[in-house]
Amino acid sequence: MADFGPGRMSAPAYLACVALLTVLGLGVAMWAHPAFLHSTLQSIGLEAVPRAAPGSFYAVRVAPLFESRCAGCHGETREKGQLRLDSFAAVMRGGADGAVIVPGDTKASELFRRISLPPTDDKAMPPSGKTPLTADEVTVIKLWIAAGASGEVREIKGAPKPVMEVTIPQSDPATVQRRRAPLAAAVKDLQALFPGLIAYEARDSADLEVDASLKGARFSDANLAALSPLAAHIVRADLSGTAIADASAPMLATMTSMRLLRLANTKITDKTMEALAGHKALKSLSVVDTGVSDAALEPLKARGVAVYGGSHE
Amino acid sequence: MNDPVKTDAHVLVWDVPTRIFHWTVVVLVAVSWFSADNGFMRVHLWSGLTLLALLLFRLLWGLFGSTTSRFINFLHPPNKVMAYLRWRDGALYAGHNPAGGWMVALMIAVLLAQALTGLFSNDGLKFTGPLALWVSDDVSTRITGLHGTIYNIILALIWLHVVAVGFYLLVRNHNLVGAMFTGKKHPRHVPAGLNLNFTRLYIALLLLALTAGIVAWVFFQGVP
Amino acid sequence: MSDRKNDDLMADYLQVEAQTRRQFVGWGAGGLGALFMNSAMAAPAPHGDPTALNFVRDPSTPLSVLPPQFRAKVKRVIYLHMGGSPSQLDLFDYKPILKRFHGQECPQSLLAGKRFAFIQGVPKLLGPMFPFHQAGKSGAWISDRLPHLEKQVDDLCIIKSMKTDQFNHAPAQLLVHTGDARLGHASLGSWITYGLGSENQNLPGFIVLISNGGTTANAGKPLWGSGYLPSVYQGVPCRSAGEPVLYLQNPQGVTRPERRQVLDAVDEINRHAYKEFGNPETVTRIAQYEMAFRMQMEASDAMDIKKEPAKVLERYGAEPGKTSYANNCLVARRLAERGVRFIQLYHWGWDSHGTPVDEGVNVGLVKRCKETDQPTAALLADLKQRGLLEDTLVIWGGEFGRTPMWENRGGQEMEFIGRDHHPGCFTLFMAGGGIKHGISHGETDDLGYSITRNPVEVRDLHATMLYLLGFDYRKLNYPYQGLDQKLTGVKSARIVSEILA
User: Fold this and answer.
1) Residue C68 and residue A288: Cβ atoms within 8 Å?
2) Engineering a disulfide at B62: which of A290, B71, B219, C72 sits with its beta carbon 3.0 to 4.6 angstroms away?
């Protein structure tokens, strides 16, 4: 061991060598991993960051897919294979083994190859245990790459229709309470008078439903008339099998928000049908087992109301 | 060295446990990197746990170990460190010099942080660190992000460490690498009248058994 | 939230601990006299608080009507469960290519890593057993075993990509009916009566009608059990022959007013117990006694299909006095008219392994089709004609599918043609409000073995059903064992938006 004698290098020379080697090392790393080069250049502003236009096919169809299905492991918290799929720039940049998208060439695109492998394959993405992409999702990505993997193109022919996920209506209790306020007192009184007969159609609604069918013959024209303070708020009424007759026609005429009305097995006739002429919201009407004639139902049917029953049932 | 009558015999400065610790850590860091990069998560788990046991051992060894291994002997106040870095410090150090001492402390701290965050990490697939179920999925994922960040810090520290060792070797003609293998330094690099104590090897083994036990216990805490 | 359940347990405990003292007082002669005091019981409010915006179920009015979370598409569900699981490959999921490969050995790729209930070794492929043709305006493929249903095919939403993770009857049935393959979870009907209450206070909100094979088949009563929900929500099995509900009528020599007196007294005691211990099961008991009393009148009427015109009986193929699927379908329509929320029909005997002759695809399946085809079609037509299909959801299906392979139990071919259980895909159809009709959803591969498009998990079906009833499946829950239990379980479910109208 040569522990004696002066150093083989001067300090400045050594530091210069270190700087040179470091730069060289980084250079080799960047050469081997172009993604690293581009992300460095992009982060220090020497290269423009590619962005997808809002409303583009990428932004609307592809990005949400990457975000929901891939970015958990290829995103901010995890960067598996040094690949991120949470921005257009990152997607185009690729990962440790280079670009994953070759515009216009699905076969050469590693990303496409991986997502189209059978789920049991070791290299398949998402990896085994995760839900594979659906056929439609794979097609969306395939078409996008084939069409040039652009961040600008808005529409691509033959793309499967987007799946609309159901959004649950969010209710704001204060708004509902405010809308219910004008009728709350009347609702309460009538609920006390006719238990189980009248209810709000939903917890987020101020519209009312009436179901008198279980009361049968005990529910009369006079009973229905008692609901008059709420007439305009009743959107659904099942009066099947009750004792109501044409005398209720004027009352029914005031229930202008009505969407569904069931009058099956009652004594109503064509006269009552006239009372419904102005009910623009009416979608469904049942007059099964009544004396109502087809002729009287014709105008309603013409308006697209689903009519059940009539003299020629 | 071939001269059997050499008078200026090399002086033993590093005890066996410290040397074994050093090179095992080097190997384990490499294994950890390689296994994580290639998805050998079982290997990663065991190298991480071993690393944790060794780091905990090193903490204890820094309190009860040999003279050159004790923190108290190589963690110097900042003014001394600054003086050393400006080459104003003419003193010789048998063990770590003031700059190297802090380098060691920093390295141990960062590796420890890496091993500990690893316990709570998950790879989003089939592998979860042994204690990942102690925290919420969200927290575990955030710790995993931290695990990735610390990896980059480790890379930087390794770079710095190697550059500094190279500096001593090439500029100051002081082979630290060799000393970490043999444990011995040339008397030229060692203060005169040195009086080093070496803790018995069985104490090291006891301490290692203790920390390995702790790690095993922690590991089994996470096993449902 | 779990505190509530702990309180319940505490109440149970206190009640048990207090039992001996109460019994002593209760059975003492003086006690008896006191019990017959006139009870000033107010009738339970049938409503709860319908204006409440959040889901709040007052335990003292467990069956009061509560509005759904948001506007519902359907008001009730009729679930036609074909117990044992019919073969989708011989009824709905037409596979001409499978037919071409009929009799050849099953490709190894389909068998690798798979576990079957009975198939061993390399079975042979089994093509569709019956001719298929396209029907209706929608052109849906259907086999010639369902000539009546064929006429309603444009009302159906046929899901060909149902999947499950259970390949044995009992757990698979539990999964379909309670959302979990293990015992102890609340059934669909229980969840719905818990969420919406019972419209008709004289009938249970959840009625079970069984044909072809008693009550004990496979998973048995837990299929309509209430699990962790209070037991007032469990399904009430009714019979379509004889007395609809056993032990419902008064014993000989007891008049209805006398019965009332007894009930008043018992209720008073229970009310006292509830006040003291607050155990919801006490309220359940009061509600059940009262319900039973009111049902004495209503249930017999609802179940009495003799009241239907001959024309209607004929359409269903119903014969009063028998226990049959046809009778049950007609009863189901009568119950739907009477405001019953969840009407569950079970028709057992669809298992088609080919071991005994009645389990042959070419024998048993044919019989089951004969028993159910006309009534199912008649029920759909009847509901539609009365306008009830608009706000009713009808679901038809088994608990899993059947293999495209000829079952070779113990490595031997069966004497009769059979198919093994297949959780990988099965067909189920729905009809009614809020969903598209005349459509098929999902696809399977050319052999009918795996789903290739739009898989629907059982929990997705449940989430969709709750959505149609006006509930977010995430919000309808019940605290139990430290978890807000949901019908869909802990895995994330998806509302099948593609089939919503």
Assistant:
1) no
2) B71
